[in-house]
């Protein structure tokens, strides 16, 4: 107990207290008498910054949705998936050209989900600042920025009449925003123009007890957490960035997570496929490596219902083993790897629909509170929540070893580490060099090293013959111009 107890007459602002009572949250002022004048001001500002009506609606709708009956789960129809083996070279070339034209005309924006810190990697910096140990030492942010620069060059070469730079929208969080902006500024935006990059923050939402009451982190501060990567939809809406995209002539949005070292940012083939299919949404998928792999998979909810993502924790163990007798594949095999494409019109529908429905996922967590860590709930939306609103979704299979190198856990873990991601990058780029007529020598075995091809040189292994043919490269090294 503090010794600066305030006089009983110093009461919380009556109007604010009444508003809290309307929503059953008046306990936020329970420790008012123990606070200094400065702490009281901080608490008042904290509560005044909340849209209490909206938060109350989210809590009620999210709690009410728990335990509600869900539609029967069905496998994704084979007709909804473009598999690697069924694509013809003609289709790929046509999609590539369609995508490059759309990009050159400014119809594509890139949306990066980058709200997370590298805590699990042993870093307090934004995850995009992390280097996975490539010969170049480049961060994830730099690799992605240089892929955008490469595509811009290819798009400009493909369409001499017009070229509009790709606009990059980067969602941060209150925990990463300042550090992310400074990192880009200190690195000269990695060669991009500063005005083609827009930063915006995802929202936060109070953590609540299992009876829906706010948890106090300190006597004068609510416990809050980011609203999940699906918070991107409400953040785009509240920041008026959907309107900004429309003014720029954007019609398609390529959306991905920051922690994929092999992500093909603004992939023209995927853009062209998306345009060709005429759907509202699309996702790149990889086949599950094995039945028990802990990944979310695309499913159909209800007969004729929309495609959506079923988390591995929601799957009955028997479901993971079911086989499609026609294809010989797992019935539920299409993994979600957070590589999505949306029309701008659809993003507007999603932002409105998610806000109207106000249903968030409830995650049981240990929440820091005035009473130490306590059991509570974080409320989150996920990026894949959008798919249940889509009138049409197409899935585009990609090869894991070419486009998916997640960086989620510290080295020493069993999977998805900087070491495993670096190995995937170096192996892929080494194959590019050999295919282009180059030779490799190694001071250590190939499984431990390889060559890195700068994204400024090649996007998918193209245009390497002039650099590589007949040359020998000593790994590890980076191949630049």
Automatic annotation (TrEMBL):
UniProt keywords, alphabetically: Nucleotidyltransferase, Transferase
SUPFAM superfamilies: Nucleotide-diphospho-sugar transferases
UniProt pathway annotation: Nucleotide-sugar biosynthesis; UDP-N-acetyl-alpha-D-glucosamine biosynthesis; UDP-N-acetyl-alpha-D-glucosamine from N-acetyl-alpha-D-glucosamine 1-phosphate: step 1/1
Single Gene Ontology MF annotation: UDP-N-acetylglucosamine diphosphorylase activity
Source organism superkingdom: Eukaryota
Catalytic activity field: N-acetyl-alpha-D-glucosamine 1-phosphate + UTP + H(+) = UDP-N-acetyl-alpha-D-glucosamine + diphosphate; N-acetyl-alpha-D-galactosamine 1-phosphate + UTP + H(+) = UDP-N-acetyl-alpha-D-galactosamine + diphosphate
Biological process per Gene Ontology, one example term: embryo development ending in seed dormancy
Gene3D superfamilies in the record: Spore Coat Polysaccharide Biosynthesis Protein SpsA, Chain A (3.90.550.10)
Record-stated family: Belongs to the UDPGP type 1 family.
Name this protein carries in UniProt: UDP-N-acetylglucosamine diphosphorylase 1
